């Protein structure tokens, strides 16, 4: 079975990951397609592969971290340098992004689909997701740096973090969710695969504490989409004109 995905000019074939016989990298999120993904969507001609959750990521979402505007899934960054910096994890990205071009706000697909809370084997309490600026310096600390309780590296206040409400335990999103499969937390996907998936990684020591997600997929008509993109393009063009002083 093959089908057309908006991000690629050729039809994609759907495989089980083991059917590929080799480790491939997802062209959407740039992470390996290992056995945590239910399926790999492939164009063999181009060595183009997508995780199941990246291929099925909604094109327009309302995200609680960015309430004023819907985020649009872009197949590649539209910025100069063909790269974006993720507002959640602070790392660069070159492939899919959930973007608000009006605000130059971008998220990796995996970051956009992070669960609102997780249980991690390194901590006895449930950890809640904070959209940055919630991490306050440790009381009595001599400098104003906060550190991740798992990897011990600096936790930037403007980056997202998982924090314990009860104790002083704050960690990077990536450190808390190394075994969490993104994409199972969308409100609109309570299907059998999601349930199967949860069972699969419950044994891995990391589980989403609640099934409910925080991301709502938005249905837009083609006309609404055209208008949204048009508004964004206009805004970028207007900004370019303003900064180049023409
Ligand atoms: Zn992916
Ligand atoms: Zn192709
Ligand atoms: Zn990110
Ligand atoms: Zn915005
Ligand atoms: Zn960390
Ligand atoms: Zn705790």
From TrEMBL:
Give all residue intervals belonging to the DC1 domain.
64-112, 123-176
Identify the InterPro entries for this entry: C1-like_sf (IPR046349), DC1 (IPR004146)
Instruction: Report the superkingdom from the record.
Output: Eukaryota
- Keyword Thylakoid on this protein? no
Provide the alphabetized UniProt keywords: Repeat
Q: What is this protein called?
A: DC1 domain-containing protein
Instruction: Identify the species of origin.
Output: Deinandra increscens subsp. villosa
């Amino acid at each position: 079975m093959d089908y057309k995905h908006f991000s690629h000019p050729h039809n994609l074939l759907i495989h089980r990951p083991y059917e590929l016989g080799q480790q491939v990298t997802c062209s959407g999120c740039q992470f390996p397609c290992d056995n945590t993904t239910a399926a790999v969507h492939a164009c063999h001609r181009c060595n183009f592969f997508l995780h199941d959750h990246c291929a099925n990521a909604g094109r327009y979402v309302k995200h609680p971290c960015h309430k004023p505007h819907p985020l649009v899934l872009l197949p590649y960054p539209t910025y100069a340098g063909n790269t974006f910096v993720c507002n959640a994890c602070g790392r660069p990205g070159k492939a899919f992004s959930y973007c608000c071009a009006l605000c130059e706000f971008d998220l990796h697909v995996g970051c956009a689909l992070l669960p609102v809370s997780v249980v991690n084997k390194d901590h006895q309490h449930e950890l809640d997701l904070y959209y940055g600026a919630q991490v306050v310096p440790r009381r009595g600390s001599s400098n104003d740096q906060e550190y991740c309780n798992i990897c011990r590296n600096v936790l930037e206040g403007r980056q997202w973090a998982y924090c314990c409400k009860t104790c002083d335990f704050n960690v990077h999103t990536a450190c808390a969710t190394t075994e969490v499969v993104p994409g199972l937390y969308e409100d609109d996907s309570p299907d059998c695969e999601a349930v199967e998936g949860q069972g699969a990684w419950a044994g891995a020591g990391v589980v989403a504490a609640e099934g409910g997600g925080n991301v709502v997929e938005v249905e837009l008509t083609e006309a609404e989409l055209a208008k949204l993109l048009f508004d964004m393009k206009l805004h970028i063009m207007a900004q370019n004109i303003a900064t180049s002083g023409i």
